[in-house]
Structure to design on (252 residues):
């Protein structure tokens, strides 16, 4: 992406409506390059829609979506993905019949212009990079295990490593700890922090598990009814009266 010094992602006055329902209501947000931010907000406030607008699934009805300084509003998901945006959905998109190591090799092959499970035929992946990614997601000891047989939390970590293998610069994670135990949640938080600190990735995380949000150790934007209503570190946001009233109050 161009303009190496500018923010990687900038939303300005983004609006998205479904019929009469205003889901994103003039939303603005800036993610500096190499930074991580967490978007916290109640169910139905528009978080997933925000990701859908960034990835091009939906064109916004108004406003700008700037990636590396370029307005991408209205571009196709394919074009936006090729600009270096990778997204993790809630259900892991892994290949259950293949080994953990092969699951990493497929997106590494895609980075080299080869796609799909058959891409590995006759292709020798970068083993140093593969082993580095296996280490990052904590699965080095399970490299040869069949992915269909590893735990749910391990599949989620593997999929995050697969996004990184594609060499995306901006990574979007939508509730990456859904359905996980406390220990699995901590392992995912640690992996995501390492992507920022060691791999230099820019990361947006949607989450509503406050324990996980605290462990991410990053700035938080609070979203209510399609707008950002508060921003700050965990300690600040969790004390903000508007946040307590509109969101946290229900959970304390
Ligand atoms: N494709 C769609 N068509 C119509 N309404 C939608 C669509 N996607 C989301 N919505 C509505 O937009 C609102 C916000 O949804 P969503 O972005 O999924 O919220 P969140 O991820 O914060 O839970 C909800 O009322 C939802 O029903
Ligand atoms: Mg959602």
């Amino acid at each position: 992406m161009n303009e190496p010094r500018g923010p990687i992602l900038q939303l300005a006055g983004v609006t998205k409506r479904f019929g009469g329902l205003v889901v994103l209501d003039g939303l603005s947000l800036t993610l500096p390059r190499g930074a991580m931010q967490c978007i916290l907000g109640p169910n139905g406030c528009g978080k997933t829609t925000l990701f859908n607008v960034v990835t091009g699934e939906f064109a916004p009805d108004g406003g700008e979506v700037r990636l590396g300084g370029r307005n991408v509003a209205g571009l196709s998901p394919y074009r936006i993905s090729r600009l270096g945006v990778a997204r993790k959905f809630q259900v892991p998109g892994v290949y259950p019949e293949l080994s953990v190591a092969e699951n990493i090799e497929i997106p590494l092959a895609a980075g080299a212009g080869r796609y799909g499970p058959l891409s590995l035929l006759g292709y020798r992946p970068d083993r140093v990079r593969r082993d580095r990614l296996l280490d990052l997601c904590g699965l080095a000891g399970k490299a040869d295990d069949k992915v269909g047989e590893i735990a749910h939390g391990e599949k989620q970590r593997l999929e995050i490593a697969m996004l990184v293998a594609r060499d995306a610069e901006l990574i979007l994670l939508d509730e990456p700890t859904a359905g996980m135990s406390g220990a699995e949640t901590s392992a995912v938080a640690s992996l995501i922090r390492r992507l920022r600190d060691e791999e230099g990735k820019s990361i947006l995380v949607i989450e509503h598990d406050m324990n996980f949000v605290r462990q991410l150790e990053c700035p938080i934007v609070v979203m209510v009814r399609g707008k950002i209503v508060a921003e700050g570190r965990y300690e600040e946001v969790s004390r903000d009266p508007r946040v307590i009233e509109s969101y946290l109050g229900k959970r304390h």
The longest strand covers residues 21-31. The domain at 1-84+168-252 is CATH 3.40.50.300 (Rossmann fold). The pocket of adenosine-5'-diphosphate (ligand 1) is lined by residues 18, 23, 41, 43-49 (CB under 6 Å).
